[in-house]
Amino acid sequence: MSDVNERLQCSAAGTAAFDVVIAGAGFAGLYMLHRVRGLGLTARVFEAGGGVGGTWFWNRYPGARCDVESLEYSYSFSTALEREWKWSERYSAQTEILSYLNHVADRFDLRRDIQFDTRVAAAHFCEAENRWTIETNRGAVTARFCIMATGSFGGEGAGDRRTRHFQG
Q1: pTM here?
Q2: SS3 for 10?
Q3: Mind listing the pLDDT tens digit for each residue in 94-103?
Q4: Are 31 and 147 contacting, i.e. CB atoms less than 8 angstroms apart?
Q5: 19 located within any domain
Q6: Domain of 112: which CATH number?
Q7: Does a structural domain hold residue 168?
Q8: Is the residue at 137 inside a domain?
Q9: Total domain count for the chain?
Q10: Which positions ≥6 away from 60 have C-beta within 8 Å?
């Protein structure tokens, strides 16, 4: 790596520092936040949307639902959560899945570590400091670990890629 690139990637002095940065507040991102908190680590989640849910936040078309049974498509890390949430359908609609994810975010107070309406633009690893610098549309932070929980449908233009060749 050139000296110029090293200086650019390691020049995040004065920015907020976390143990873990997670990109995405869908199923995976919410679970990762819950887990790293349980390990006593500091964390920040950056979510491009205005709320939790990932795919279920963005995809609100008529008839959107899951093709996996609701009980299988829910978290199993908390027996209390399993007992208190009752699915109304065997294969839940988007609205119920999003309600479930909002319930989880509230139940475990996850929102306090999520920054909404924030897109991750780049993540650079600085070998000299053994840290990541994560650049967003609202500034930069550093972290020991960077977890991309953007899912298979995440990323710029993902909808275009999924539907470009669809003929049905």
Answers
A1: 0.85
A2: coil
A3: 999 999 999 9
A4: no
A5: yes
A6: 3.50.50.60
A7: no
A8: yes
A9: 1
A10: 94
